[in-house]
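User: Before I run my own analysis I want an independent prediction to cross-check against. Here's the chain; please return only the structure tokens and, at the end, one sentence I can use as a sanity check.
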Amino acid sequence: MKKFFVVLLVLASILVIGCGQQAAVPAPAAEAAPVAAAPAAPTFSVNDFARGYMAGLANNNNIVAPAAVLTELREGKAPFIVDIRQSDVYGEAHLQGAINLPWSTPAMWESLEYLPTDQKVYVHCYTGQTAGQFIVMAKMAGIDAVSISSGWNLGISKVEGYEALTETTPNVLNTSTSNGVSDAVVTIVQEYFADMATRNGTPFANNMLSEETAKSILDAKDQGVQFVSMRRPADFAAGHIETAVNVPFNGDMWEGTALLPTDKALVSYCYSGQTCNQGIALLRLLGYDAYSIQFGMGTATTAPRGWANKGFPVVASN
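Assistant: Structure tokens:
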């Protein structure tokens, strides 16, 4: 009986203790917060850009007459002008309001994000050659860039009264607002000029070569070179550089581009070198080793420069 009583006391103690405490319940495991996927880096298709550029070529071939730009200045329309001549020359005289992005300097890619995308951008160099390459880079950044025909030396400075529309005070590019150009495009442009710089001091600087250098290549019958005419088919038939193939600079250029050899250097030419510099910029972006003959076949404006103006031979074909 005494033992039973002791057992009861023990059981009662256990019950009292049990009622006075709640058993610890393990906290539910916290759910891991969903990890947001890193945003994909913006991509840029050079192929799509080049194809669209060629297909969308307007009748003006992205070139505007200098007189048209000067008229806008006279009328107070404040056109956006980019002068890519060297800074010392720009400082001597430039069009009113023009900003300076010297050719083949970091300004070529560092300034792309600050150029306007809501108005036309007029670009000029000395004779319209290198401006052709730069407007291709600008269009990759979504900028409606066009080249001023024949540049400063052969175009702007030949317009009567142009002096009254010039100044010497430098203009500063507004860098307060970015146009949102992708890093991918900026990198492509930077690499384009870095590659071009490897040919500084050679006959192929600025991705161009003189008429005399082209003639020596033709005379040497260099099998590693393909001459390419970017002139209209009728003009090609009337007279072209021997061995040249015709890939006209027009809306159908993409189809002709696909037929060009990838294992040869392409020595290309047009009329004055202006459209050809656009063409070789596109070809180089596509991986071709392309160059432009300075001043092309030659025109009255470029005389005495240009292949035909120098009396170099041409052949005709049907």
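Sanity check: The chain has twelve helices and twelve strands.
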